[in-house]
Amino acid sequence: MSLTLGKVHVERTYHVVARAIEEEILSGRVSPGESLPSEEKLATQLGVNRSTVREAVRVLEQNGLVRREPGRKKLLASIPRSSEISRPLSAAMILHQVTFEELWEAMHALEPATAAVAAAKATPALIRQLEANLEATRQAINDSSSLAALDSQFHNLIAEASQNRAIQLARKPLSEFFYPAFYAVMSRLNAGARLLTAHEHIVAAIKGGNAREATSWMDKHITDFRRGFELANLDIGQAVARPEENGDMQPLRDMAATFSNEPADSKIALV
To answer: Residue 148: what are its φ and ψ, rounded to 5°?
Structure first.
């Protein structure tokens, strides 16, 4: 009698070790900020080589669950930063060839809801920051690069004003792709005044605690983004590209130029 068997795939030992330490942290048995045993002690306790523990720790450090004190070898359990959470999600969106249209659909669902929560929870300090953003936007009304950066900041402030960590974590990888692309629109359209009007109404609604009005104006604002994308002759079905980590707007300027044969100083009015 013969058996039809496939190959047995054995999990690498350092993955098993990393998962065991991760479980100690996620279960609460080790709290964020609490010291972990040294690599040598962990190796003895787990019955593995120290090199195996070192590899496991490297994985946990990449995931933000373990950090080392600056200048020391001491290991501490930690809470992952938002960037450490969004990085693998951003990579997945690139590899799955998620399109700008899909991003827009996600942001169209998320941003109005975020504005509504912000209207209920925004603190005076956050409202002051939003008002400062409005003033900066007025001063930069004809500067496409600055407007794109200020728009991204505006939406990040509203997410912060929501005081909802689930919303903040969910939207971060989306916004890293969505709002940098906004420069491609702003560089082709005379849309600064329209953007400012929407922002002013949204801030007024949040300041007044009017969730319905905040939702309505944010919906209009995000809908305008899609309309602008199409008016600027940009391909909304294009797959997203890796966002620039250094915040340099030059790649966005180049992207805007490649999408249209019109001169750089020829802009369409979004009315």
So the answer is: -65, -45
Distances (CA, A) of 206 to 27, 69, 124, 141: 38, 40, 11, 22
The three-state secondary structure class of 266 is: coil
Q: Are residues 169 and 108 in the same domain?
A: yes
At 219, which helix (H) or strand (E)? helix 211-231
**With 0-12 CB in 10 A as exposed, 13-18 as middle and 19+ as buried, what is 163?**
middle
**Strand pairing of 268-269 and 189-190?**
parallel
Domain containing residue 238: CATH number? 1.20.120.530
Read off the pLDDT of residues 206-243 as tens digits, 9 standing for 90 and up. 999 999 999 999 999 999 989 888 888 888 898 887 76
Q: Which one, of 204, 226, 202, lies nearest residue 108 by Cα?
A: 226
pTM: 0.76
Question: Alpha-carbon distance 269 to 45, whole Å?
Answer: 68
Residue where a domain terminates, one of 77, 93, 117:
77
Residues, the chain: 271
